[in-house]
Structure formats: structure tokens, C-alpha cells
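Many introductory courses stop at the sequence. We go one step further.
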Amino acid sequence: MTAERSHGRIRLLDILRGFAIFGTLGTNIWIFAHLGDLNLLFDYGTPWWTSVDAFLQLLVLFLVNGKFLGMLTILFGVGLELKYRQALRRGDPWPGAYRWICLFLLVEGFLHFTLVMEYDILMSYAVTAFLVAYIVRGGDRRINRTLKWLGGGYALFLMAVVALEVGLVASGANLSWGNMDPVVRLYREGTWLEQVVYRLSSFIVLRVEAVFVIPLNVILFLAGVRLMRAGAFAPDDRGRRIRRRMLRIGLGLGVPLNLLTFFPNGGFDLGVRYLFAPILSLGYMALIAMLVEKSENLKVWRFAESVGKMSLSCYVLQNILASCLFYGWGLGWGGRLDSLSVIGVWLAVCLAEAVFAKWWMERMRLGPMEWTRKSLLKLVAAR
């Protein structure tokens, strides 16, 4: 059954969350591999048709960049809705204790940002969750109004930015993220402590994107709430109809729009990542759900389910592993591997964390970070 429950959990949601974790590394792995040089992550001055290496990288980014992050964000919204329902059943005030979850997530994100990777998403999720918790408390009317006005305003703003971006490219301007050589040198030659100091000293600059995406996060959180309330993950005919609609819209509209990734010189990069990618996220979710329903006993689902159950731990773990592999204080692979090798490393890390997660969840009910958070929340509640 697509929505089979285990210990109060919906199996499909854990499987989707597991694939979302795998997919986010599919984007982040290139940041590690290029030692933080974002110019090499996008098609800025290096046309993808000039080499197989450049094409392979852009092909992977077409498939994953923003899509699995969008899926993860939607699933965070689903999780928030489940917490809200739990509070209503218990008669607890809302957001009540959920505000502590947001605070712990903010702290976890700050530690991850500082100690592991500057492109952390957890801090942004923490702020988003706090905002959405109050929107949800206002009922369906407030949710719909927020989606209407915030969604419309955000789409118009992004389209204006994309039009400007395309216009600059058409006029012959070279888009770039500036001189990234100091960052590359830091991650190739610097110590771990020097990298920590860099992240802290550049905190405001490095957190611009995390703030910029909050409106999109709010929209996707609320989309997750709406999907859950509509029964999109239920194993009944209504759920299947919704998933078929998600598949048609997500793939039918999302694939053509995301093909703009291949537009020369990164002219549509911002539009693809922050506007078009989440559309394809819906298609991916529906496609995975349909495959799970047709072949629910495949081993791959059990591995993905385990990763999904301890998604916070695996998200941090995979970034720690990538740091050890690519940064100079580790194995120092950064800047040395071709695209095919980077893809191989991505898949190997996913496989390793999947095996570890399955082994762990066969012995424990929670992942390490999930257990720590739950224990701290109990201490707070007991005071």
C-alpha cells in the first residue's frame, strides 16, 4: 500500500524523503567537487556543448538541481501538517511546542553551516516553519490567500529577474559569481578551522540565498500542507487521481521549462532553480509514488525509507563525507575529478549512507540527530 503506516509513519513519505536527500547531494556534490566555485557549477563561460565533461555535469544538474530540494521542502510542509494534526488530536496549543522544534532546527542549521557547509538549508527551513505554523493556524482561508498573493508576487518577481538575466546574456554580457579563486584556494589548501572562520566572518554574505528563498519555501511548505489535506499520499482512488494530475503537470510542464537549463551562458539559471524546478518536483514525487505502488517490495524502497526516517542525520552525514573526500584537509579530490568520477562519488556516498541508515534503523527507532533533538525537546517540556 502506498501509504502503509509503520509506527505511526507513512511509508511513502519516508521513501520520498529518502530520495530527496539523495537528490540534494546530487547538486551539492558539484559544489564540493569544484571547491566552492559556483561559476563552474553553472554554464558561465563554459558552453556545455564544448565537451562531454561539461555536458554530463549539466545533464545531472538538469535532473536534480532544485528539483529534489523542492521535493524536500514540500515534504517539510507535509511534516508540519502532520505535527499540526497531532497537536489538534491532543488538544495542545498551536504552534506551542512546535516553536521549540523550529528553534532547534535553527541551531542545527547554524552548526551545520559553521562546521560543515555554507550552503545549509536548515536555517532557512527553521524560519519558514515558524512563519508557516502561524499561517496554518489561520485555517484554509489564510493558506489560500498566502498562496495567491505570495505565490503570484514571487512568480512575477522571478520572471522579471529572468527577463533581466536573459537580456544581459543576449546583449553579450558575461554572467558570473565573481572571482571565486580565494574560496577555491581556501578549500584546497586551508585547514578545517580556517574554513570555519571564513564561514563565520562571511556569515551575512553566505546567508543571502537562505533569506532569498524564504518566500519560495513558504509557498512549497503550504503546497505540502495542501497536498496532505487533499489526500495526495493516500492509497485510495482519490490519492491516485491527485498523483496522476501531479505527474501530468510536473512532467508535462516541468520538463520543458527545466530544459532551459541548457540555454547558453546560464541565462535561465535563476528561473530554473527558483521557479521551474519545483514544478518538476511534483512530477518526481508522483512518479516515485506510482513506482512504489506497483513494486512495493523492491529493496531500493527499504533503503530509501531508512534514509527518510533519519533524513536530518543523513543530510548532515552526506555533506560531512563529501567534505572529507573533496577538501584539502581530507583526501583532497576537489578540482581533480572529471564529471563521470564526480557522479560516481555521488552515487557511492548515497549507497554508503543508505546501507548505514538501514543498518541503524534496524537497531534504533531514531537517527542520531533525531534522537538528540527529541531528547532535548523532552528536557524542555519537563521544565
